[in-house]
Design goal:
The chain is mostly helical. The chain is built from 18 helices and no strands.
Amino acid sequence: MTRQAYTLVLFTVLRAVSPEQNHYIYREMEHMVRTLILSGLSLLVVVAIIASPGGAFQASLQGLSVWWNIVFPGLLPFLTLLELMLAFGAVHGIGQLLHPLMRRAFKLPGEAGVAVAIGWSGGYPAGAEAAGALRKRNAVSRSEGQRLLALAHMPNPLFVLLVVGAGFLHRPGLGAAILISIWTAGLFVGLAHGLFVPERNESDREEAEIGVLRRAARAMKEARRLDGRTFGKALGDAVTASVAKLMAVGGFMILGSVAVQLATPLFMGMLPPALLPAVIESHIGAYATSTAPYSGMTWNAAAVAAALSFGGITALLQAGGALGTVDLSIWRLALNRLIQAVLAFGITLIIADPASRLLAPLLTSAQPVLQQGDRLPSAIGYRISQLPALWGYAPIMVAAFAAAIGLLALLSYGLPRKN
């Protein structure tokens, strides 16, 4: 029920109450109605699981398998690395290096470049976690954090290249084209937001007098002094916090898989078969859209790009869990993801065929990592044993993250200073 519906229902009651009490009564009744709706939905889910325990179990197992083989190894290095970078001041130092680029292109502080690199290299919700960490220590304002959240909340690139491209579509070049489309759509939205935001009123005098490298070293030293933890303590805290966050992510993914399994029979014949999985859970949605009977592989690739760019409800919930009590809106993130999904769909339709042909010689070693298996009673059509693991690619992802930071720093350092 929308806010407008709440207003219509409560209009008569609120007219009879003094204006000073309207807001309080409205909020209380809204909270009560929302609680009743969520309680009813939870009860329906429990009844559906009891009515179909076998399907719910298989869906839970599929969600757990995707989380353990893909999401956990894909995110653990980056979440742990982020905690260590914050503890030892590396985020502050890199932020000084990236400050000119992020400020002039996206109207964001330099530390935002670290969140973008983490989100684009590790996948969601690593970008949301990084954006939330910066907002929590007031490195970004609320509006800046909102724009940074939309820019950094991206799918895991290895999942797109290996699982979607070489696995689901059996064409690694298409996976690369999908990834380029998603990143291009994100950059376009980020740059468009920056056009309508006034630039920070800051001077480059300090940069000219001290130099960017010295400023980065000074910021890193000061942040390290304020933290004060030893390496062993910081590492232990980083691993503990990262694993706890990933456990929550796994819970969201399992619930999303079960929701797809239970909701599919209810909407059968009413919605396109691939739409519901794509809206609820991005990994399941990527498989559903890649195997849907469209008029050509290019349309499948475009649908996959849209599904992964949106991320699904579970990815939005993961972002909300990663943000915690930070005052950033998930609804605004969802709107940005919808816009990026539409852009990614259109961009993929344009570049899929030429990009696939151009990149195919470079990806000849990427053989299909999934073979279509017997269908389980689930929304995912491959066997659990055939699901590839990203554990061996963790060093590659960390190296890609370091390369992204280095490239951004070079671009930032090469920008001409403002007069």
